[in-house]
Q: What sequence folds into this?
């Protein structure tokens, strides 16, 4: 019997996208948490960055947004000029007080009370999707279920025409999956080609198409952002375009990948399906566990605004510091048996929504509601649902994405 060995630190390269195609490298993250919780990663064509991997460290850094800044260099690993950062600066890339002002303008549309009104719509929608899809017997769960629910709900909230949802999904894939050949083709072969797009979100030319689409909606005065106002303050045209892009892409992609990871986890741990069927009241805790387990966004980058020491390492002003939420959510210093998928896990104070700082996910209440209702409506089908082929993962160290998850349904519902 082979004995598992811990990877050498010299073998760990978190810029190696091919590794993330095969798996989330939790063995790497465990080694880093144990022996190098503040780890310098060299970067081909870049300046290199510090990786922070422990839960408590990431929580502490999140609470210091002016020391570990989102706005100085942006939140991606790209090395950008100040002009490029400003041009592509969305809510994700701002520090207080600028971040505080912009968030306050749209926050009312995403409070628990505001999103609660969509519960019946979410429930009816997922029921209709499942009733329509399950008779096919064999299908791609991502395409038929994971994509459809969040995008149709976002269409309601944002005021986008329902028939445009697949166009918006495609644009989102090209934006957030800009290192995935299936989404962007030849653009991924030579990342230096993306430098001409560095002033655009995610360095993607698809951002221009999303901007054009958003401005078309602005002319129709139909989106939630048009009416965003606080004490007479409204979004500028540029803020409107960036905010629309952020809400459409993040609101769809994160929930979609969480659902795909969730069904994969459930079908790979059938004892947990049995627990849910016997105890449907566990759907709430199961939803939180799916969100923790998936951690749809692996990391966000910050920039140190002053010299800081962390675990004996000297972080210099201007250094890139990467917060690996996917590692924090498997930190055995905080979670009991974190590598176990446990639908009854409680407490479960995970970091999938960026706990601890001003950048806590604006759409967290909507995402939680969608995942919980989705699970409640899916529950009767789960005992007869099975994996039916290889799961295809995205080539990305930013998004923990699943492109396809083939399933088979053997039930009679």
A:
């Amino acid at each position: 019997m082979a004995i598992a060995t811990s990877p050498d630190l010299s073998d760990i390269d978190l810029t190696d996208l091919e590794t993330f195609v095969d798996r989330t490298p939790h063995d790497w993250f465990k080694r880093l948490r144990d022996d190098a919780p503040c780890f310098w990663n060299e970067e081909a064509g870049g300046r290199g960055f510090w990786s922070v991997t422990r839960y408590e460290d990431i929580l502490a850094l999140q609470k210091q947004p002016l020391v570990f800044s989102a706005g100085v260099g942006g939140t991606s690993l790209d090395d950008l000029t100040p002009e490029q950062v400003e041009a592509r600066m969305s809510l994700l890339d701002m520090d207080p007080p600028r971040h505080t002002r912009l968030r306050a303008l749209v926050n009312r549309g995403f409070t628990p009370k505001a999103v609660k009104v969509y519960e019946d719509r979410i429930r009816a929608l997922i029921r209709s999707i499942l009733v329509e899809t399950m008779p096919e017997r064999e299908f791609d769960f991502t395409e038929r279920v994971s994509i459809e629910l969040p995008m149709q709900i976002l269409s309601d909230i944002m005021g986008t025409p329902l028939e445009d949802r697949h166009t918006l999904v495609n644009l989102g894939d090209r934006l957030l999956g800009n290192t995935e050949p299936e989404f962007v083709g030849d653009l991924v072969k030579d990342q230096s080609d993306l430098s001409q797009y560095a002033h655009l979100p995610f360095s993607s030319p698809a951002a221009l198409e999303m901007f054009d689409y958003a401005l078309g909606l602005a002319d129709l005065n139909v989106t939630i952002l048009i009416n965003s106002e606080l004490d007479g303050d409204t979004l500028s045209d540029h803020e409107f375009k960036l905010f629309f892009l952020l809400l459409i892409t993040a609101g769809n992609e994160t929930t979609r990948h969480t659902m795909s990871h969730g069904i994969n986890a459930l079908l790979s741990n059938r004892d947990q399906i049995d627990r849910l069927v016997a105890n449907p009241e566990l759907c709430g805790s199961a939803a939180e566990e799916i969100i923790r387990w998936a951690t749809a966004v692996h990391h966000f980058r910050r920039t140190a605004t002053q010299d800081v020491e962390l675990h004996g390492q000297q972080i210099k002003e201007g250094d890139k510091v990467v917060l690996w939420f996917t590692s924090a959510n498997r930190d055995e210093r905080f979670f009991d048996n974190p590598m176990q998928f446990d639908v009854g896990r409680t407490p479960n104070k995970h970091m999938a929504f960026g706990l601890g700082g001003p950048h806590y996910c604006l759409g967290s209440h909507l995402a939680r509601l969608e995942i919980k209702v989705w699970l409640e409506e899916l529950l009767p089908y789960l005992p007869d649902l099975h994996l039916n082929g290889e799961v295809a993962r995205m080539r990305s160290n930013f998004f923990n994405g699943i492109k396809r998850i083939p399933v088979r349904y053997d039930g009679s519902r």
User: Anything to note?
Assistant: The mean pLDDT is 92. The chain has one domain: 9-409.
